[in-house]
Amino acid sequence: AQKVTQAQTEISVVEKEDVTLDCVYETRDTTYYLFWYKQPPSGELVFLIRRNSFDEQNEISGRYSWNFQKSTSSFNFTITASQVVDSAVYFCALSEAYRGDKIIFGKGTRLHILP
Amino acid sequence: ETGVTQTPRHLVMGMTNKKSLKCEQHLGHNAMYWYKQSAKKPLELMFVYNFKEQTENNSVPSRFSPECPNSSHLFLHLHTLQPEDSALYLCASSQDGGARATNEKLFFGSGTQLSVL
Predict the structure, then answer these.
(1) In Å, how far are A84, B30, B75 from B70, measured between CA atoms?
(2) CB atoms within 10 A of CB A14
C-alpha cells in the first residue's frame, strides 16, 4: 500500500533561518511521482514541485530546494532564509505512474515563520 | 479570477438539511476532483471525474453525491450528514484523469468549510 509520512506536525522558526520539512514515502511501484504542495491560510493548495522516481537529482528553485533519496524513501524540502510569507501548511504527496489522478497526501507540516 | 472557484466558502447545516457545494474551473481541464480535509487527517480523495465520467469513488458514503454535468463544473450534493463530516472540502482540476492521467499537477480551489450541527 502507498503511504506518505510527514512526521513533523508543526515547526516554528525565526525569519531568515533555514528549515527542512521531512517526507518519507512507501510504495511497491518502481515508477511513481512525488509532489510538494503549499496551503496558505487562504485554503487552496498550490503546487510546488513534481519529481518522478527515475530522477534523483536534487532541485533548487530560488530559496526552495528538494532532496530526493530513493535509498531512504525520502523527499525532503528545505526553505533557505525563510520569510514570514512562507508560513503555511506543506503537504508531501505520492502518485502511481498509471493513475496519476490518485494522489496520496501526507498529513502536512504546519510551518510558522516568526518575525 | 482564480482558476478553480468554489462556492460557498462557508456552510453550516443541520443533519437533516440538503445542500450542494459547487466547483467551477476555468482552465480547460478534463479532470475534476473532490477532496476532504479534516483536522488531524490526511487529505482524502473522494471522487474523480474525467471527461464527465466518474473514474474513482473512494468508498465515500452515499450521503455524499457528486455530479459533473460538464468538464468545467462539479457539484457535491449533501444530505443527512453527520457531525463527523464537518471538514474543508476542496475541489481540484487537472488536465487529464483516469488512465490518461500523466501525473501533472493539480489546481485547487480555496475550499468550502462545512460545519454539520
Answers:
(1) 40, 9, 10
(2) 11
CB of A33 less than 8 A from some CB of B: yes
DSSP conformation letters of B28-79: --SEEEEEEE-TTS--EEEEEEETTEEEEE-S--TTEEEEEEETTEEEEEEE
DSSP bridge partners of B16: none
For the record, the C-alpha cell of A35 comes out as: 509532489
Chain B interface, Cβ < 8 Å to A: 2, 4, 31, 33, 40-43, 45, 48, 50, 55-56, 88, 90, 92, 94, 96-99, 101-111, 113
Kindly indicate the confidence band of residue B99, based on its pLDDT and cuts at 50, 70 and 90: low
Cα Rg of chain A (Å, integer): 14
Pick from B103, B105, B106, B114 the residue to mutate for testing the A interface (most A CBs within 10 Å). Answer: B103
Which tens digits make up the pLDDT trace of A3-40?
A: 999 999 999 999 999 999 999 999 998 889 999 999 99
Q: A11: Cβ–Cβ under 8 A, 6 or more apart, which residues?
A: A19, A21, A109, A110, A111, A112
DSSP per position, B12-25: EE-TT-EEEEEEEE
